[in-house]
Amino acid sequence: MDSKQTKTQNKFLHAYDKYSDEIFRFCMLKVRNRENATDIVQDAFIKTWEYLERGNEIKQIRPFLYRTAYNLIVDHSRKKSTLSIEDTVNLDTDLGHEDDLTKTVDSIDGKLAIELLDGLTDQYRLIIEMKYLQGLTLSEIAYATKKKKETISVQIHRAEKVLKDLYKAKYEENI
């Protein structure tokens, strides 16, 4: 193995160690099934490795992994477009928590967030999840979605306004 292959392998292993849990959480939010999310993460890293093995260079591996995982999620959703009741129940138990109070608060907050996110278009939901749940920068989101950074910035602003309006309509009128 030459030094370039070793460097590529080390870069890949470092990316796996650093981003695999993060990519898993992203997939889990999208497919809401631990086994499917695990499979998608594994496939995303395999596809990334194969891409590198073919001699291609990846300048920003984090958004590349998100783009790959997202494409696999889209493929997965085309195969299975419904979410079973069992999968929904498993979502609450798959993420794990320290104590019952924390679990209850997190469950309520998580359900509220998912409910509000469900009111967004797919594109707005994707960029909001990438920014706030995964912590990607505007540049990384732009790279992952193949859009301009400025476009992402505008879409995030618009999505935030929609979320505020959804929140006000649903929860502030009941207070």
Structure commentary:
This protein folds into two domains: 81 residues, Orthogonal Bundle (Rna Polymerase Sigma Factor, Chain: A); 79 residues, Arc Repressor Mutant, subunit A (Orthogonal Bundle). 80% of the residues lie in helices and 0% in strands. It is mostly helical and 175 residues long. The chain is built from eight helices and no strands. About 15% of the residues have low confidence.
Keywords:
80% helix; Arc Repressor Mutant, subunit A; 175 residues; mainly alpha; Rna Polymerase Sigma Factor, Chain: A
Give the overall pLDDT as a whole number: 80
Range of helix content: over 70%
How is the main sheet built?
Answer: none
CATH C-level name of the largest domain: Mainly Alpha
Number of helices: 8
* Overall geometric form: elongated
CATH fold title of the largest domain: Rna Polymerase Sigma Factor, Chain: A
The CA-CA distance between the termini, in Å, is 66 Å
- CA radius of gyration is 18 Å
Number of strands: 0
- For the record, the count of structural domains works out to 2
Structural class of the helix and strand makeup? mainly alpha
Write the element-wise H/E pattern from the N-terminal end onward.
HHHHHHHH
Low-confidence stretches: 81-98, 101-108
Beta-strand fraction estimate: under 5%
Using the 3D structure, state the CATH architecture of the largest domain. Answer: Orthogonal Bundle
